[in-house]
Specification:
By secondary structure, this protein is α/β, with parallel strands linked by helices. It has 14 helices and 16 strands.
Amino acid sequence: MEALDTKRKALKINLDEHIYGSFAEIGAGQEVARNFFTAGAASGTIAKTMSAYDMAFSNAIYGKEVDGRYVTKSRVLKMLDHEYPLLQERLTEAKYQNKTFFAFADTVTTLNYNKDNDPHGWLGIQFQLYSGGPSNTILFHVRLLDTDAGLQQQVLGALGVNLIYAAFYYSHNYQQMIESLVDNLQVNSVEIDLIQVEGPDFPDVNNKLLNLYLITKGYSHSVIFTPDGHSHQAKDYLYKKDILLFRTKANHKPHPILDREEEIVREIEQEEGCAHGKLSVLYELTLDDHKEHSLPETELSHFLERIDELTQKGKVVFISQFARHHNLVGHISRFKPRMVRVLISAKNLAHIFNANNYQDHYLSELLAYISQMFNKEVRLYVFPEKTKEGENWIHLDTIPVGPESKPLFDFLCQNEYLKELKIAESPY
């Protein structure tokens, strides 16, 4: 079925005699409300619009944020929790009895004049699916990728219309709900890197599954799940942290080295001078082989099982779409962690330096790979592993490296970009 354009979506909502609510927008004008005004018949939908652009006004209405930031999940939730009850409190006359109320909110920063900021935002809606019904909430975080503030404002307006339309018309179909959020938007104009759906009318919702689906559709690159069951943006979770990354696969038997996590963490804390308990350990699973999977839980059941298995053991799980190490590390480095240490097997490292795994220009391709892998924050800790025959052990200093790449390999070892994990020197 062909998606309606943004104006027709807004007009359909305006002409629906039941849908009625308010708009509160911070930071990028009133781009969402504008679409409803220009579509026509806006009086059928809009009870109120506002933009508390000045920080003093915003704080007076919604309260101050502990961290002083305004483009946050906490902020958009406070906006919704303030605006939605006002509808029920003030709109009590008989003519409102058949209305399904909603409050839409967004808090966004678009590209500044110097073009040196990170344009992103939170959008959310609190809404009823039927008159007099309970309220439900959908919210998501976006990164705005266009290089022009005007284009980003247009994208924001379309995103807001898409969210309101999805809440009322696609609430029965999670897959359609998510896919419709990018209707009428250009490829690579936006990234949706976190979504949350909750409420009495969504008793069967699995937010882990929804966030996995964002990655399989290419709307997002990664997501983090913590033992408390919550989902997190990689940017917020990794910023200024010391990271230790254990790469594993959902459908593979866990590597025996992972049973020695406590020993590994202690060694790396000592090697790197980290205070005990300050190293953030992430178990990474890649969804690279699951692109374009449909949403049904059976399609990603082993991922969900593995996530639950790890989080129930108190582990933090990092899901990404990156199969290759340098792409994953490059993605993580975007979020400005203090330190990134990746656990890698000797066989895996040998695979990286194997000329047969490259095309015609081995050295140039290897150099590109290595240059994207390493920066001042990134180091690899290598643990020995048995050969396929299971007889000999491959260590860092016995990895087969060809003469053309040996100087590069030696440079990485001598400058401790590659370090052997000492606790793994004995068989495990």
